[in-house]
Predict the 3D structure of the following.
Amino acid sequence: MCTTNQRFPVDEQPLGRTTINDLKQDNSDRYRAGWKATMVGIVGNLVLAILKGVIGFLTGSVALVADAFHSVSDTFSSIIVLVGLSYSRLPADHNHHYGHAKAESIVAKIVAVMLLIGGLAIAWSALQMIVTKAAISVPGSAALWAAGLSILAKEAMYQYAIRVARRINSSAVRADAWHHRTDAFSSIAAVIGIGGAMIGFPVLDPIAGVVVATMIVWAAVGIYWSAALELMDPAPCPDLMEELRRDALEISGILAVHQIKGRQNGPKIFIDLKIGVQGELTVLEGHRLASEAKHLIIRRHPDVEDVLVHVNPAEIDDRG
C-alpha cells in the first residue's frame, strides 16, 4: 500500500515538547474531521431513508423501497464507523503497545460485511419477483423524483466523505464514503426501474433491484479486501521509504543508512531504521544522532507514528 504523506520542512517548528503537542493536535483534528463526515452521513441517510421508504411504499416501487433499506443500512454502518473512530484514537496501553489504530480497518470490514448481506438480500427479493412473475405495481412519478433527489444527495455525501477520508487517511471513513456511492448507484438503478415501469415495462423495477444488489456486493468485496490487506501490515510505498532514508542522511554524523523497514498500522506508520556512524563515537553521541533522526522524520512526516533507530558502526553493514 502506497501511502501519500504530507511533508514539512525541518525548520518549520522546533523539535521536542512542541512537536509532541502538535502531533496530539493533529490526531484530535483528524478525529473531529472523521466524526463530522460520519455525522453528516448519518443525518443524511436518515432523511433519505424516510423519504424513499414512505414514497416507495405509497407508490408501490420495489426498487425505491430497496433503496430506502440500503439507506437504513448506511445509517447503521456510519454509527459503527463512529465507534471505530473513537476506539482507534485511544492511546497505547499495556494490552496494545502500538495503539488501537487498526480498529479502523476492522470497522471497514464490518461495513463491508453489512453491505454484502444487504446486497444479497435485495438480490434475493428481486429475483423472487422475477422468477415467480409476481404482480408488479406501476410506481408513480413521486417515486421517480425521490430517487433522483437521492442520487444527488448521496453523490454529494460521497464526495465530501471521500475527500475527508483521503485527507485523514482513514479506511473506516473511506468505507463509509463508498457506502454512500453504492447508494447513489442503487438510486440510479431505481430511476431506471421506476421509469421503465411507468412506460409499460414493470419488470424493469425488480431487474433494477438485481442491478443494485450486484453493485452493492461488488463494492463490499472491494472494501473488505482493502481492509484485509491493511491488517497484514503492508509496507509504505518505496518513494516514502527513500525520502526517509534521505532525511536520516541529512543529520551530520550519520554516515550511512544500512536498512529501513516500515509497516502500516491503520492510518499510521511505524519505521525501523539502522544507521551507520563513526565507530569511535560514545553511546551518548550515538543516541543523540538516533534521536535527531527520529524527530526529524516524525516532524516531516506526520503519518509516521514512531521510529525505532538502531546505531551501528558505519564500517559494519548490519542488514540482518
Observations:
- The first strand starts at residue 256 and ends at 265.
- Helices lie at 17-59, 62-88, 103-132, 141-168, 171-198, 204-230, 238-249, 283-300.
- The chain has two domains: 17-230, 238-313.
